[in-house]
Structure formats: structure tokens, C-alpha cells
Design goal:
Layout lengths: L1 H25 L8 H4 L11 H13 L2 H12 L1 H27 L6 H9 L1 H33 L4 H5 L1
Length: about 160
């Protein structure tokens, strides 16, 4: 429990210090209209209530964590624990925030569109291919990791469990 409370303290400190630094770096303005308001079309750009946005954000952030956090901790030990805490502060949160801010400032464009706009058509196609590859890999991991864990826990007798 001591390491849990230390990690919670680090996450809170990271939020209030590094998070504020990142916020100052991008200097958001509340008067700037989001693409959902500026380009409202009832299909792709639709303003949402704060509660729905918070729920979607929670589901996006917490999706894989409760599944793979304990598995990675069991497989890799304390290194996974450090990666979860430090990676959340310095990589995951920053990536999500900055990507969202860049998207908002470019009319809600997604990453391949941004790559095409700033780096050219070839980069856009490469980012599309990379995103597709990552989706295939994520799907594969979601299937194989729990199956492998069950196989290890049952000593290789999964076939008997299914029958």
C-alpha cells in the first residue's frame, strides 16, 4: 500500500506541476470555439454535455489499464509500476493533451490529416498505415495476452477447460 500511496502522490503532484507547465505552453483560451461548436453539423461535429464528455474521457483512459496493468506488473515487476506512474505523467497525459489541442486548432482533424497537412501526402498515408497496424496489434494483444495467461494458470490444459 505504501507504493500505491506514493504513486498516487506522484500522479497528483505531476498533475498540478507538469500539467500546469503544459497548459501554459499551449495557452488555451476559453473564448475559442471548439470544432463541435464552430462546425456543428449534427453528424460529425456535435456539442456534448459535460457529463457525457467526462464519461467518454474516463472510458478512453481507463480502457486497457485495469486489464493490462496487473498482468504487466505480474510479468515485469516494479519496472511496470514505475512505467505506469512516470509514463502517465510524462508521456500519456502530455500526448493526449497536446494531440487534442493540435486537433482543436485544426478544425478537429485527426492525426493522419494533420500529418498530411504539415508533412505531405506520403506522410498521411504512412500514418494511416501505422494506425491500422497499431489497431491490428492492439486487437491481437487483447486476444492473446488473456489467453496466454489462462494457459499458464491452467498449466497448458486450456483445451480441457473449453470442452
Amino acid at each position: 500500500m505504501v507504493t500505491f500511496f506514493i504513486s498516487m502522490a506522484l500522479l497528483i503532484i505531476g498533475y498540478f506541476t507538469y500539467g500546469k507547465f503544459m497548459d501554459k505552453l499551449f495557452s488555451p483560451k476559453n473564448e475559442r470555439a471548439t470544432p463541435a461548436r464552430a462546425l456543428h453539423d449534427g453528424v460529425d461535429y456535435v456539442p456534448m454535455h459535460q457529463q457525457k464528455k467526462a464519461l467518454i474521457q474516463l472510458l478512453n483512459i481507463a480502457g486497457a489499464g485495469p486489464i493490462f496493468g496487473p498482468i504487466m506488473g505480474a510479468l515485469f515487476g516494479p519496472v511496470a509500476f514505475l512505467w505506469i506512474v512516470l509514463g502517465s505523467i510524462f508521456a500519456g497525459g502530455v500526448h493526449d493533451y497536446l494531440t487534442g489541442m493540435i486537433s482543436i486548432r485544426n478544425n478537429g482533424s485527426h492525426l493522419p490529416q494533420l500529418a498530411g497537412k504539415f508533412l505531405g501526402n506520403l506522410s498521411q498515408h504512412l500514418v494511416h498505415a501505422f494506425a491500422l497496424s497499431l489497431l491490428v496489434l492492439v486487437g491481437t494483444v487483447f486476444i492473446t495476452t488473456p489467453a496466454s495467461l489462462i494457459d499458464i494458470l491452467l498449466g497448458g490444459n486450456v483445451a480441457y477447460c473449453i470442452i
